[in-house]
Design goal:
globular; 7 helices; 19% helix; alpha+beta; 19 strands
């Protein structure tokens, strides 16, 4: 455990420069990933686990919900809900053939999304702050990548893409508490969080949702969430919308509990989904809603 703590305190530039040290951290991460969690197989190629992390000197815990998706599993298909569905509640996705969903983009009250946003190969309109937003992009042939510096324009081969706020893990190095201090309360406050990452092979995608704002469950600063992702073998990851938007659903069931002060599911701009079919009848899934909420 001492090495874990040290890996979290060294700066990103130092971790990248010291290749041997970074390798030791990575090996430790993989060892803990295999040992710590009890994974439930939802489908071949799709695993779920819940993790409670006790907080020293407190009766509260950090509660994380994890999903591991094999991007090479032929009968599982990753997608981002389309702009026509903006304003949906995550409960609208609790139906076949969808087997898992996670809220995605930050958004305005008009459901305009932060960063480049692409669904089914179509670029969303009304995007904002696109140059500042790291993003996750995937092609039709299941090639996904985390881009920590967003390009000026979307690539024509992107089928699905969504932007976030702040990178969590870059080349195996997690962001640090010092990084969080530089971006203020948004990063340092223990909020509920949602994040997505890839392992070094880019063949496994990892989703994580951290609960919070509950009497017994505390959210996480970004640096703490980043470290937990490294401990699950994540090589690159970004932070997606969190707070009251945080929601992970698996097999038509919300696995994340709501904040105590916001029991009802919030309308969101979009969500990542895993489906057992390559195409979706989105008109049947998404109904127009007019209850925007962009409060974090």
């Amino acid at each position: 455990m001492q090495l874990i703590a040290i890996c979290n305190t060294i700066g990103r530039s130092a971790a990248l420069a010291l290749g041997l040290w970074a390798s030791s951290c990575s090996a430790l991460a993989l060892q803990n990933a295999q040992a710590d969690l009890a994974w439930e197989q939802i489908r071949p190629g799709l695993l779920y686990a819940r993790q409670d992390i006790p907080i020293a000197g407190s009766s509260t815990v950090h509660r994380l919900h994890w999903l591991r998706l094999s991007l090479v599993q032929p009968d599982l298909h990753l997608a981002l809900t389309p702009q026509a569905c903006a304003g949906l509640r995550m409960t609208a996705l609790d139906r076949e053939p969808i087997v898992a969903s996670l809220n995605a983009s930050f958004f305005t009250k008009e459901f305009f999304t932060l960063g480049h946003t692409v669904s089914q190969g179509t670029l969303w309109t009304g995007n904002y702050r696109t140059p500042e937003s790291p993003l996750l992009a995937c092609t039709a042939d299941r090639q996904c990548e985390v881009l920590h510096q967003a390009p000026a324009r979307v690539a024509p081969e992107w089928k699905h893409a969504a932007g976030g706020v702040y990178s969590l893990v870059q080349s195996g190095a997690p962001r640090t508490a010092a990084d969080d201090v530089q971006c203020g309360k948004f990063c340092t406050t223990p909020h509920p969080r949602s994040a997505v990452g890839l392992d070094s092979s880019r063949q496994t995608m990892v989703w994580v949702a951290a609960e919070g704002r509950q009497q017994a469950v505390t959210g996480m600063p970004l640096a703490e969430l980043a470290l937990q992702m490294v401990l699950q073998g994540v090589a690159d990851a970004i932070n997606f919308d969190g707070g009251g938007s945080t929601a992970l659903h698996v097999d038509a069931q919300a696995r994340t509990s709501r904040p105590d002060n916001e029991p009802q599911a919030r309308p969101v701009a979009n969500a990542w989904i895993v489906s057992t079919r390559p195409d979706m009848d989105w008109a049947a899934v998404c109904q127009p809603q007019h209850e925007p909420s962009s409060a974090y």
